Amino acid sequence: MSNAKYNNTSRRDFLKIAGATGAAASAFAIGGCAMGPSGTGPRVVVVGGGFGGATAARYVKKFGPDFRVTLIEPQTSYVTCPFSNAYLGGIVDLNTITHGYSGLSKIGVHVVHDMVTGLDGAAGTVTLSSGKVVEYDRLIVSPGIDFKWNMDGYDEAASMLVPHAYKAGSQTVLLKKQLEAMDDGGTVIIAPPGNPFRCPPGPYERASMIAFYLKNHKPRSKVLILDRKDKFSKQGAFTEGWKRRYGNMIEWVPAKDVGIISSVDAGARSISTEMDTHKADVLNFIPNQKAGKVAHAMGLTGGGDWCPVDQITFESSVVPGVHVIGDAAVIKGMPKSGNAANSQAKVCAWAVVQLLSGATEVEPAVTSNTCYSLVSDDYGIHVSVIWKGTAEGYKKTSGGVAPANMDDAFRKAEAGYAHGWYANISHDIWG
Questions:
Q1: SS3 content of the chain, % helix, strand, coil (to 5)
Q2: How many percent of the chain have pLDDT more than 70?
Q3: What CATH code is carried by the domain that includes residue 165?
């Protein structure tokens, strides 16, 4: 096909559209939700309807309006991990963090609620659980995470008693119900995973939001964090916020003092280490992680835990013509986060449209990540970073975490910005 139709958008135009910040992306989304045609151009199939996949589907359609875009996602609605901790704290309800796909359908994305069971890279097809075979010219996969069920006493069945709540939805609701049922004066134990894992600040925001709930409803209770690491993301800002809002309610114990966690007793809600056994009233054990199950089923991990990819286009190093983004991909320098997946998806969508329009090379792009965490309803912290893409990975060009010792007015504003960030990025992705 002719290159002219799609290649006449300059790289500068792309940066204006995709943006280096969430605000730029959101502004574009608000103005760009008009109904689009189903298309007659190349076929792009996207697997996964979360932060990465839904964004990729939307932006392939924006960058290539005539492209035929199909999104395959088994669930009819998506509950986000971002702001699921705020749900635990009672700051937002479940509807706030639940999104459907009608916004994508309105712009001409064909949404199929089914499960991918197989990939034939040579033929350019994916097979669905219904038996249907879907052809593609390029495939984008954003499979999220799965868990390594290799802890003695903790498997998928045990998670029905001791929730991980690291895939939002029913697990998040279960954890909240357990918190509500706990007596005042109880102990909540959180056991964060080892690196790498989805959303590095997530377990520590969770401790904050659980403490917020307990302070308001069960103030004699305690949160104990038994970590498998000796440091964590935004540590200075979190620990300062904990002292200012909760006093001694939250205790963090690093791996060097916890010892190796050897087993979990889901029935007793206890964790055993080489040093001690810790009994909880509510236990939140978060397993170590790997790429989502569908990535392994499609053969995209190369036998490892995660999916190796080209750092410029995110094309799989294992299966040509398939691109992997988000938490499942090995994208050097960037964290596994929702905002990072959203940024990567725009870069990937641009690359796919260019490659299917005849380009032989795609220029490195700028990516970003803005991560807000709530310590309380009026105390927010954030990190914001911009990266420049290279063949070796993503190099930080600017950004960081605001200093820990900011005043209450600053922190209250940050909490408000967190809500604005969530509303904007949700609109950008699902419409």
A1: 35, 25, 40
A2: 91
A3: 3.50.50.60
